[in-house]
Specification:
Helix 1 runs parallel beside helix 3 (49-63), helix 8 (163-173) packs across helix 9 (188-205) and helix 21 (544-551) packs across helix 22 (564-572). The protein has a six-stranded parallel sheet, sandwiched between helices. The chain has a five-stranded parallel sheet with strand order 12-21-20-13-19, with helices on both faces. Strands 17-16-15-14-18 form a five-stranded antiparallel sheet. The chain has 23 helices and 21 strands. The protein has three domains: 18-113, Arc Repressor Mutant, subunit A; 126-347, P-loop containing nucleotide triphosphate hydrolases (Rossmann fold); 351-572, Rossmann fold (3-Layer(aba) Sandwich). The chain is globular, with a radius of gyration of 25 Å. The chain is an alpha/beta fold. The structure holds adenosine-5'-triphosphate. GO terms for molecular function: 5'-3' DNA helicase activity; ATP binding; DNA binding; exodeoxyribonuclease V activity; single-stranded DNA helicase activity. This is RecBCD enzyme subunit RecD.
């Protein structure tokens, strides 16, 4: 039976013909992919259907976070879609592309081996490769006093418990670019604090001025966490003298560090002609940094600035295109440009959540399920078919606590309660989605309090900021709570990277209710307790990286609600992205 065509379906490109039409009808291509490909091929006089198809597929790839399209892999990645798809033969496809006017100047698309790029991403990837190679080919940073360095390494990283971190710091001191990688609680921040102290001492011994240090992260939330964590680890482990050498520091988002320009979202005040002044730049949560932002950062740092890229390669990649951290972990080391600085031992969680995270990363479904089912103080696995009773029990006390504090005008207690628990969903919509659970929690509040919550803004409404608002000073990822003032009006208090801010609800445009949030949006933030609602095993969003990111948002306790089958499916699937950076860094350059 042929289904009637819905002429109002925006995903369909009704004017498309040939392969573009077949792939669009099958749901592989969105109308936007088809329109870009049709337009480009028409403008440049390309009549070959297979080139138009490749063009549309590369737009689709970028839309889903890849930097390029690997023509050898796309068929497997797309799947058979009822076997109705007519794929071009690979060799013929490559020849048609090589001969295409699309690959002649001005070259809107680029072909490198079997990887096809939109020009912008090709340029950015090439620039990142060249900047990293140039940094690695310089003479290594000078050490002012080797003996003092040796003593300081053992002072700042004492004894066996710090062996791994000492080795990582020892490596980072001797290279311009270091990727410091490790899972949750493996001591990355502690290592950064010690490393900064080492570098500050070396600068003093060399008779240089005090080090200029930049701490940065992709989001406001992550930057605020970094600043707090470095401060905490510094006061915990460093002597007064080491701390004094560091001076004060604060963390900023990458956008703020590079200097936002009102006329562009991808260009910044600091660039190759106006470099950042810092001697050391530490980037946290590097897994969230897109290829574009990495390109902008690398062109803005001086060649003799030490760059320390900190992150957990097991996490989901950036929302925009790229998988920079994973590419750098492999590419810099395998290409011989840098020595690995990897931390493996978890120092947090009484290590149960660390063990679970490690088993997820190593793709050990048996071990993961055993750890989940064994449970304990920090882990709970709820395999009930109906998640409502457990979610109600888990969420409602916290929600009512926030409401009570907000009703009493107690902002501090409301914000503290807000960060005690977070429900994470894979989906935005549908029965496992954030929208559904936000509504459900609101119904439970009404049941408990008899407040019908007619208005969008109600006392105790927790909110998540979903877009940067530079005018207000609130950023994507900031969270806040709606509090009653003594005069009865409502005020929203946002815990922003720049401190506590409060607004009339009507001034906040891009916010969502935060009884539940997506795992993607939770990247870069943590809560004391996390409940992860797993979707059904058939969900296409399930992946190892998604599950890993979700459970590692927990500071103390994690609860997974869902089936063992969903957990197994998540582990078996990778959220892989096609990129060429890793290959570029490993391969010998052609020119
Ligand atoms: N070698 C060590 N021995 C004992 N405790 C340590 C050691 N290194 C770090 N810690 C402690 O373990 C905890 C986690 O360390 P840290 O915050 O540096 O890890 P992280 O990898 O930055 O964590 P996150 O997952 O938040 O990124 C902190 O309380 C820290 O003080």
């Amino acid at each position: 039976m042929t289904l009637p065509i819905d002429s109002y379906d925006s995903s369909l490109a009704l004017a498309a013909t040939g392969s573009l039409r077949t792939f669009n009808d099958a749901g592989v291509l969105h109308s936007a992919d088809v329109h870009v490909a049709s337009r480009l091929t028409a403008m440049l006089g390309e009549g070959d259907e297979s080139v138009a198809l490749a063009c549309a597929l590369v737009v689709r790839a970028v839309r889903s976070g890849s930097v390029c399209l690997d023509l050898t892999e796309v068929r497997d990645e797309v799947g058979d879609h009822g076997a109705s798809l007519d794929w071009p033969d690979l060799n013929g496809w490559l020849t048609a592309l090589a001969d295409s006017p699309l690959l002649a100047p001005p070259q809107p698309i680029r072909l490198e081996g079997t990887r096809l790029y939109l020009d912008r991403y090709w340029r950015e990837e090439k620039q990142v490769e060249q900047d990293l190679r140039a940094r690695a080919s310089q003479a290594p940073p000078a050490i002012a006093d080797e003996a003092a360095l040796h003593v300081a390494l053992h002072r700042l990283f004492p004894g066996t418990p710090f062996d791994e971190q000492r080795a990582a710091a020892h490596t980072a001191v001797r290279q311009w670019t270091t990727v410091l990688s490790g899972g949750p609680g493996t001591g990355k921040t502690t290592t950064v604090a010690g490393l900064l102290a080492l570098l500050a001492e070396q600068a003093e011994l060399a008779g240089d001025r005090r080090l200029r240090i930049a701490l940065t992260a992709p989001t406001g939330k992550a930057a605020a966490r970094l600043e707090e964590a470095v401060r905490g680890e510094t006061s915990k482990w460093l002597s007064d003298q080491d701390t004094a050498r560091l001076g004060g520091f604060n963390a900023r988002t990458l956008h703020m560090l590079l200097g936002r320009r009102p006329d562009s979202s991808t260009r910044f005040r600091h660039n190759r002609d106006n470099r950042l002044p810092h001697d050391v730049v530490v980037v946290d949560e590097t897994s969230m940094v897109s290829l574009t932002m990495m390109a902008r950062l690398l062109e803005a740092v001086r060649p003799d600035t030490r760059l320390v890229l900190v992150g957990d390669p097991g996490q989901l990649a950036s929302i925009e295109a790229g998988a920079v951290l994973a590419d750098l972990v492999d590419g810099l080391v395998e290409g011989g440009h840098a020595t690995a600085a990897e931390l493996r031992t978890s120092h947090r969680f009484g290590s149960e959540i660390g063990d679970l995270a490690s088993a997820v990363r190593r793709n050990q479904p048996g071990e993961v399920l055993t750890l989940l089912r064994r449970g304990g103080d920090r882990i709970q696995f709820v395999e009930d078919d109906d998640p409502r009773p457990i979610l109600r029990r888990a969420l409602l006390p916290g929600v009512l606590k926030i409401r009570e504090a907000a009703e009493a005008g107690d902002v501090d207690s409301a914000l503290v309660a807000l960060n005690e628990h977070r429900l994470l969903c894979a989906h935005r919509d549908g029965p496992w989605g954030v929208a559904h659970w936000n509504r459900t929690v609101e119904r439970w509040i009404t049941d408990e309090t008899e407040d019908p919550l007619w208005d969008t803004w109600y006392v105790g409404r927790p909110v998540l900021v979903t877009a940067n608002d530079y005018g207000l000073g609130v950023y994507n990822g900031d969270v806040g709570v709606t509090v009653r003032r003594p005069d009865g009006t409502l005020r929203v208090h946002i815990d922003s990277a720049r401190g506590r801010l409060d607004f009339s609800p009507s001034r906040l445009g891009d916010v969502q209710t935060l009884h539940a949030m997506t795992i993607h949006k939770a990247q870069g933030s943590q809560a004391t307790e996390i409940t992860v609602l797993m979707p059904g095993a058939e969900s296409r969003l399930l992946s190892r990286e998604l599950f890993y990111t979700a459970i590692t948002r927990a500071e103390e306790r994690v609860r997974v609600v869902g089936s063992a089958e969903a957990v197994r499916t998540a582990l078996s699937r990778r959220a892989l992205r096609a990129t060429g950076l890793r290959h570029r860094l490993i391969d010998t350059p052609h020119q």
